[in-house]
Amino acid sequence: MLGNIFRNMPDVVKNLLLLNIVMYVLTLAFNELFPMLALHNFQSLYFEPYQLVSHFFMHSKAMPAHILFNMFALVMFGSPLEKIWGPKRFLLFYFVSAGGAVILQLGINYWDYLKMFEGMSGDEIYQIKEYVQYMVDKNAYPENITVAEINLSMEYINYSGQTMVGASGAVMGLLVAFAYLFPNTELMLIFLPIPVKAKYFVPFYMLIELFLGVGNFQWDNIAHYAHLGGALFGFILVYIWQKDKGRMY
């Protein structure tokens, strides 16, 4: 059965599935890969440009459900979309949605960065970053550093350590596109064993994401704005593509 599903899977979805699985296995085998390939904030000590792409194919090692859910959604929602659009348009949509996730999440994070250093001059910010580099390299506090500067330095170190991984942003774009094109398709949810039409489920799900993003709860380490960014950019793109066409049911 699984062999038939895999053989009938369209090419781009199949290759994305395999790539994500391979990267997940590699990060389990080589611990140093995860911090290298995960996406750090632009102002982080550890940001590298290649992370803008590499993080799309990374998933949390501590939460196997992360990759299981994303890959299930990729196959379930991505397969019919690739068959409709073709491989090139589907791949474009996938990366536009993933890019939207990055733009919104890192934009929100940059706002936090600005608030962190609010009211400080460029020289003062530079001094804090010099302190942080010293603390990271020497594992000790610089001489003459104040308590306030230590606290701010630790806050910046925590900010630098924030990472984002996963295909969730792209998957949210696929989910929104599927609901837009097939609004009356009934989805059977694991946590709610009754069929729900896509046009009702997806907006409700996005409201939950918005609530959790705005709430910024301490127990929640999910990048909800990345989910919303992927959904937003995916919706804009599918709306543009379908503007002059009839909807599919």
The count of strands amounts to: 4
> CATH first level: which class?
Mainly Alpha
What number is the mean pLDDT? 88
Helical stretch tally? 11
Beta-strand portion reads under 5%
Which spans of ≥5 residues are poorly predicted at pLDDT below 50? none
Q: Give the neighbour order of strands across the main sheet.
A: 1-2
Report the order of strands and helices.
HHHEHHHHHEHEEHH
CATH fold call: Rhomboid-like fold
Tell me, briefly, the overall form: elongated
CATH architecture: Up-down Bundle
A few lines on this structure:
The chain is 68% helix and 3% strand. With 249 residues, the protein is mostly helical.
Features:
single chain; 249 residues; mainly alpha; Rhomboid-like fold; two-stranded antiparallel sheet; 4 strands
SSE layout and pairing:
Elements: H1 2-8, H2 11-29, H3 33-37, E1 39-40, H4 51-54, H5 64-85, H6 87-116, H7 122-138, H8 147-161, E2 163-164, H9 168-181, E3 186-187, E4 196-197, H10 198-215, H11 224-242
Antiparallel strand pairs: 1-2, 3-4
Helix pairs in contact: 2-5, 5-6, 5-9, 6-9, 6-11, 7-8, 9-11, 10-11
Give an overview of the whole structure.
- This protein has a single domain (2-119, 164-242), classed as Rhomboid-like fold (Up-down Bundle), CATH 1.20.1540.
- It is elongated, with a radius of gyration of 21 Å.
- The protein has helices spanning 2-8, 11-29, 33-37, 51-54, 64-85, 87-116, 122-138, 147-161, 168-181, 198-215, 224-242, and strands at residues 39-40, 163-164, 186-187, 196-197.
- With 249 residues, it is mainly α.
- Helix 5 (64-85) crosses helix 6 (87-116) and helix 5 packs across helix 9.
- The strands form 2 sheets. It has a two-stranded antiparallel ribbon. Strands 3-4 form a two-stranded antiparallel sheet.
- It is built from 11 helices and 4 strands, in the order αααβαααααβαββαα.
